[in-house]
Amino acid sequence: MKTLLSLTLNGRPRDDAVPDNMLLVDYLREVVRLTGTKIGCDGGECGCCTVLVDDRPRHACLTLAAAVQGRRVETIESLERNGRMSAIQRGFHEKLGAQCGFCTPGMVMAAEGLLRENPDPDIPAIRRGLAANICRCTGYVKIIEAVQAAAKENAA
Fold this sequence. Notes:
CATH topology of the largest domain: Ubiquitin-like (UB roll)
Strand order of the largest sheet: 2-1-5-3-4
Low-confidence stretches: none
Number of helices: 5
Strand content: 15-25%
Largest sheet: 5 strands, mixed
CATH class of the largest domain: Alpha Beta
CATH architecture of the largest domain: Roll
Number of strands: 5
C-alpha cells in the first residue's frame, strides 16, 4: 500500500506517494534525492541519519516516512542560506569538528536541534544533546568547541 505524504521539507511543501513501510531516510535519499542524510547503522545507534522534525532531532532510519505527515522536516541541506553556512556549520568548519565527515550531517543537525532548544548550553548539556550521535574519528573535543562557537555566534 501507498500513502500520500504531505509535509514541509526544508521550508517547502511537498506531496509524494510513498510505500507505507518506507523509512524517512530512504524517502529523503531515494525519492527526494537529498543525500546529505547518511545511512550508518540502520538501527538508530550512530545518529548519522539525524534530521529535525518540528525542530527536534530524530533518527530518520527509525522513522517511517508516513510518521512525518503534516510535519516540518529539515535536513542538512536546509541550513545554508544564500550560499552561506549556518553558525553551526561554520563552527564545525572553523573548529575542525569534522574528521572523515561521515557523521557530520547528523552531528550538525543534532547540534542545531540542541541550540534551538537551548541557545547557551554548557558542556554537559552539549554532551547530552549529542549523546545519540557517534563519531568514530574524534575525541569529541572539537565537536563540543564547534557547538560552543555556534552558540556564541548566534548570541552576538
